[in-house]
């Protein structure tokens, strides 16, 4: 049976939280969806959107997390997952297995994605490059 004391009901409407800086990457804006608080830190869900051009991208890294998915809501992003270039477009869903080395190196100005990660306080760890990274597309 589900322990209903471990989590709380949460309902966040579009006007309840705003996009803000101060997240993992300074070139993105983040909108908290209330899930981390509702799950006592078991899961985080936030919307992430482009704020500045992808001049350096995220760099090669991995996450110390048990679960992570990215659902592209608007626009597109190009990732390197290990040695595989991957275009993620609006409507696509990516499950990033725990520990996979990756690099988000290019994205459209209107890029926005939903990210769900467990635990909420997951860590990002820099890693050695897995492959060469193609150049980003300049913003007009």
Topology of this protein?
Layout: E1 28-32, H1 35-38, E2 44-50, E3 61-64, E4 67-74, E5 76-81, E6 84-89, E7 93-95, E8 102-107, E9 112-118, E10 123-126
Antiparallel strand pairs: 1-2, 2-9, 3-10, 4-7, 4-9, 5-6, 5-8
Task: State the main characteristics.
single chain; about 140 residues; mainly beta; Jelly Rolls; five-stranded antiparallel beta sheet; about 5% helix
How would you describe this protein?
- This protein has 140 residues and is mainly beta.
- It has one domain (28-126): Jelly Rolls.
- The protein contains one helix and ten strands, in the order E-H-E-E-E-E-E-E-E-E-E.
- The strands form three sheets. A five-stranded antiparallel beta sheet has the order 1-2-9-4-7. A three-stranded antiparallel beta sheet has the order 6-5-8, with no helix packed on it.
- Strand 5 (76-81) and strand 6 form a beta hairpin.
- The protein is globular, with a radius of gyration of 15 Å.
- It starts with 27 loop residues before the first strand and ends in a 14-residue tail after the last strand.
- Pfam families: Cupin_2 (PF07883).
- This is Cupin domain-containing protein.
- InterPro entries: Cupin_2, RmlC-like_jellyroll, RmlC_Cupin_sf.
- Residues 51-103 form the Cupin type-2 domain.
- It comes from Variovorax robiniae.
